[in-house]
């Protein structure tokens, strides 16, 4: 069989990890080394040998067949398992020999099971795709496409059934992509990725990337970011470095509310700047954004932990610290999962013996190890306190480097920075991704050389971390041994055109002060213009407040002293008074209403404590406070505009701080109402969800919107993480309508994706790709189907019994799209999107009252964005308060109720009543 006319399982598996690797295997190029290939071959062979006797297919026990030679050997009935790694897909299957009879394997009684052996405890999607590839390849021989395949995986040789039809479309697309790459004159674009760490072609590909100065060398840059730079004509790191423009740093102001996770005030978010890293590489100098802050209060103890991610098992702990002027190194090895507790106890004992150990790690993996060990194995109270202390005082070197120190390296990885600082690993191909491969091989072979390799690699990481810590300490002290540049020296000073003038000469300062608007108007223009002189010549006195409308004298007096309970009290001061300014609503309008309270202060004859019956807590009545909230939330006025409005209409002096306090107190009062709104939404049968950015100091904050047809809730969150959905929508069993943001997929309920979003995206893709015929066909079919559905909705409403007639067409549309052979990127991306969400596009056809779009949530989002324009920059606390009050205002609007009247009423329950009137 011609190799160029076939695709082996090895090539298919390699393409899933890296198209370049698959291309190199296809053309037969040899890798510079065979270290990882040999390790993987040893691992696969040992694992298959360990479970060969345990395989049971049907009623018989048999070793899986090797697919090689099945084309030419007897095509007798096959009721066996076939190893997927030995299968080959033929683009043009060879014809049968003349007179050859049809194989019995094509009869329904024949059974063939594609089987895959994976030594890892967590099989991934690539394993399922490889099983499907084996099934497709075997169908060329047997004429039967297996319905299910099997993955045997992990230490315990567990089995996972793979439904072939779930992966047929993607497998076909991958095969087509491999063939397109093979037939193309140009090799696939070389892009370094995470698989490079365990690939024998890494030296070859990395060398080419370095020669090209390729952007994929910057491992922290995503594919989308690279594409964005490429669209601007930036293809090399050197070109990227020229685009760096120093920016004026934002004012760092901590949020007013403590972080839920750390209990500390979060500061401005630090981000990694790819342009600045490119500049550091181009100049081969360390670029520092401010002096790094690092100090050790105890004995720096460098901790490095190795584990098996697929089993959540830690097998190696390395410690390195200094004692009596000498370096001490300790390694703790576990042969199996039952030895994890032993190495943890030994490690804890060693840390306690140090006394004042301060953990120093490169990354957060080690502190997570300490937390998990504390949770996994019950400790004595003093040991638990000790672990908490070393976690609290630990130093994460990556956290001190990220966004602050830019070494001239392609990433912040320990290997790259350590080698820049002159440290070399004894294992040349050392990497965190390769260590589990060696450990799994050792478990199957018990090769002492592999064990020594891993222990040495672990201790090398500890030593390299010490080298990095020393460099950071020198940088924080301003040492000049490293070639460094302070990024602040690159910043261009802000050129002011108005405002404060920093004059070098006192004459300039005096001239500038004389040019201010207030100064010129009062000192210059007033001397030349009579009208201006009348307005600014003499400051106008503040207009006196109108007379008090009502006087109230409080004659009650305390019965006893609240401090000593004595009953002998005497009036100490009788002339106390307090004015409360409020608004009075009448049929004809609103007017100011001031009430003056007169009361006495009493003093205890025993303890001399002072007391009174009337305790004034505010100068502003409930109607005035409700009116201020109405101005802020309903009319979306800023604080300053709301204050001016109240002052000009009712002649009430309202300080800005008081307006803040009114909003905060009102939001706190209505928290039970807000919680009730959230409960009503979760208990309902339908939720529309969306999210938008907040305007919180420091950025990165969001407002989530949850609504149904009568209720709206706005929820502040520090991020766009899906954890908030797990907390808020826990127990929801209805239908969730949302856009295509992946976080919503984590909610365990029926879901309907917004078809308006999908239609807009398709329309945008058509504008950008007018010649993509596959895209046009998908768009046309989608338009025809949705137009018919919308016509039914307009006639009968959202009723399942009327919409059921479209289910067959909807299923046919999805199946047709999944079977298409899309070539262009736009059509292929849309095809994947539709296939991925096939169960969430037409859910509304099965339910009454479920819309096919998310316009309800978008309408609620627009209500917040309009308010956001008036808010300006706020704090997390302010956003929570705005979210509480806006939720109540929008819910009342959805139910046809008056927000101002509800605020005035003092009620906390909204209910489902109709619109409120002034008489209520």
Mean pLDDT: 84
In quaternary terms, these chains amount to single chain
| Top-tier CATH class of the largest domain | Alpha Beta
Classify the secondary structure makeup into a structural class. Answer: alpha/beta
Question: Number of DSSP strands?
Answer: 23
CATH topology of the largest domain, by name, is: Nucleotidyltransferase, domain 5
Which CATH-level-2 architecture of the largest domain? 2-Layer Sandwich
Number of helices: 32
Written description of the protein model:
It is a single chain. This protein has a five-stranded mixed β-sheet, with helices on both faces. The relative contact order is 0.06. It contains 32 helices and 23 strands. A hairpin with a 4-residue loop joins strand 8 (299-308) and strand 9. It has 920 residues and is of the alpha/beta class. The model is unreliable at 57-61, 71-77, 97-109, 250-267, 539-545 and 913-920 (pLDDT under 50). It starts with 5 loop residues before the first strand and ends in a 15-residue tail after the last helix. The chain has five domains: 3-95 and 102-183, no CATH class; 292-477, Nucleotidyltransferase, domain 5; 550-617, no CATH class; 670-751 and 855-903, Nucleotidyltransferase, domain 5 (2-Layer Sandwich), CATH 3.30.420; 755-846, no CATH class. InterPro entries: RecB_nuclease_TM0106_put, Transposase-related, Transposase_IS66_central, YprB_RNase_H-like_dom.
């Amino acid at each position: 069989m011609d190799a160029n006319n076939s695709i082996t399982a090895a090539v298919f598996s390699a393409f899933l990890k890296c198209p370049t690797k698959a291309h190199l295997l296809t053309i037969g190029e040899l890798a510079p080394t065979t270290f990882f290939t040999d390790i993987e071959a040893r691992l696969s062979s040992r694992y298959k040998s360990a479970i060969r006797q345990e395989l049971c297919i049907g009623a018989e026990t048999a070793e899986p067949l090797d697919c090689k030679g099945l084309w030419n050997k007897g095509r007798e009935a096959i009721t066996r398992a076939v190893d997927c790694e030995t299968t080959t897909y033929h683009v043009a299957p060879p014809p049968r020999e003349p007179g050859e009879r049809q194989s019995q394997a094509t009869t329904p009684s024949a059974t063939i099971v594609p089987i895959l052996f994976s030594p890892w405890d967590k099989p991934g999607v690539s394993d399922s795709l490889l099983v499907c590839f084996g099934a497709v390849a075997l169908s060329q021989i047997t004429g039967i496409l297996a319905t299910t395949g099997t993955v045997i995986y992990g230490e315990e040789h567990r089995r996972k059934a793979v439904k072939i039809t779930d992966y047929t479309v993607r497998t076909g697309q991958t095969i087509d992509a491999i063939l397109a790459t093979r037939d193309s004159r140009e090799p696939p674009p070389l892009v370094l990725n995470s698989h490079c760490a365990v690939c024998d072609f890494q030296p070859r590909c990395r060398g080419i990337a370095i020669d090209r100065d390729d952007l994929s060398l910057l491992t922290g840059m995503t594919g989308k970011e690279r594409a964005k730079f490429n669209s601007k004509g930036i293809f090399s790191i050197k070109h990227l470095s020229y685009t760096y423009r120093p920016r004026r740093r934002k004012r760092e102001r901590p949020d007013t509310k403590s972080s839920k996770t750390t209990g500390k005030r979060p500061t401005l978010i630090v981000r990694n700047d790819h342009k600045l890293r490119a500049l550091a590489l181009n100049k081969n100098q360390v670029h520092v954004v401010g002096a790094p802050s690092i100090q050790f209060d105890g004995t720096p103890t460098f901790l490095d932990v190795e584990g098996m991610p697929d089993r959540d098992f830690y097998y190696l702990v390395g410690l390195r610290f200094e004692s009596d002027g000498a370096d001490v190194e300790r390694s703790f090895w576990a042969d199996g999962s039952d030895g994890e507790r032993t190495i943890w106890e030994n490690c804890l004992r060693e840390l306690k013996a140090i006394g004042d150990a301060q953990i120093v790690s490169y990354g957060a993996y080690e502190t997570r190890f300490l937390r998990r060990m504390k949770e996994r194995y019950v400790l004595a109270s003093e040991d638990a306190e000790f672990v908490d202390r070393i976690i609290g005082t630990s130093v994460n070197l990556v956290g001190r480097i990220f966004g602050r120190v830019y070494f001239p390296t392609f990433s912040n990885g320990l290997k790259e920075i350590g080698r820049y600082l002159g440290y070399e690993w004894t294992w040349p191909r050392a990497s965190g991704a390769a260590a589990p491969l060696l450990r799994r091989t050792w478990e199957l072979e018990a090769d002492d050389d592999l064990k020594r390799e891993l222990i040495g690699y672990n201790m090398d990481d500890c030593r390299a971390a010490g080298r990095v810590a020393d460099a950071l300490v020198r940088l924080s002290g301003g040492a000049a041994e490293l070639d460094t540049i302070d990024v602040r020296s690159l910043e261009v000073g802000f050129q002011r055109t108005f405002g404060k003038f920093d004059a070098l000469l006192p004459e300039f300062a005096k001239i500038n002060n004389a040019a201010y608007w207030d100064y010129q108007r009062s000192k210059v223009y007033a001397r030349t213009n009579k009208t201006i002189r009348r307005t600014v010549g003499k400051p106008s006195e503040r207009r006196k407040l109108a007379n008090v409308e009502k006087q109230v004298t409080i004659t009650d007096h305390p019965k006893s002293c609240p401090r000593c309970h004595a009953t002998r009290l005497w009036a100490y001061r009788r002339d106390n008074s307090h004015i409360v300014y409020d608004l009075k609503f009448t049929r004809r309008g609103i007017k100011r209403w001031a009430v003056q309270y007169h009361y006495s202060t009493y003093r205890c004859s025993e303890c001399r404590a002072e007391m009174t019956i009337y305790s004034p807590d505010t100068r502003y009545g409930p109607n005035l406070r409700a009116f201020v909230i109405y101005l802020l939330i309903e009319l979306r006025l800023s604080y300053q505009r709301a204050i001016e409005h109240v002052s000009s209409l009712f002649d009430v002096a309202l300080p800005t701080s008081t307006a803040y306090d009114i909003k905060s107190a009102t939001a706190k009062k209505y928290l039970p109402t807000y919680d009730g709104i959230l409960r009503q939404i979760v208990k309902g049968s339908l939720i529309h969800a969306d999210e938008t950015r907040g305007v919180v100091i420091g950025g990165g904050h969001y407002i989530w919107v949850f609504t149904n047809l009568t209720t709206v809730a706005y929820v502040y969150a520090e991020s766009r993480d899906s954890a908030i959905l797990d907390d808020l929508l826990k127990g929801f069993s209805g239908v969730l309508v949302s856009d295509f943001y992946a976080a919503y997929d984590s909610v365990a309920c029926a879901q309907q994706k917004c078809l308006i979003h999908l239609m807009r995206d398709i329309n945008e893709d058509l504008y950008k790709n007018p010649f993509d015929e596959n895209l046009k066909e998908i768009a046309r079919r989608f338009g025809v189907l949705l137009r018919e559905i919308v016509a039914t909705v307009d006639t009968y409403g959202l009723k399942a019994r009327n919409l059921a007639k479209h289910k067959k067409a909807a299923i046919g549309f999805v199946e047709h799209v999944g079977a298409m052979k899309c070539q262009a990127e736009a059509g292929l991306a849309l095809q994947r999107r539709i296939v991925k969400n096939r169960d969430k596009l037409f859910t509304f056809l099965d339910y009454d009252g479920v819309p096919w779009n998310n316009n309800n949530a978008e309408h609620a989002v627009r209500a917040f964005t309009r308010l956001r324009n008036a808010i300006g920059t706020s704090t997390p606390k302010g956003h929570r308060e705005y979210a509480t009050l806006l939720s109540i205002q929008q819910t009342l609007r959805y139910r046809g109720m008056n927000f101002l009247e509800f605020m005035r009423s003092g009620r906390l329950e909204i209910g489902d009543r109709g619109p409120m009137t002034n008489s209520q």
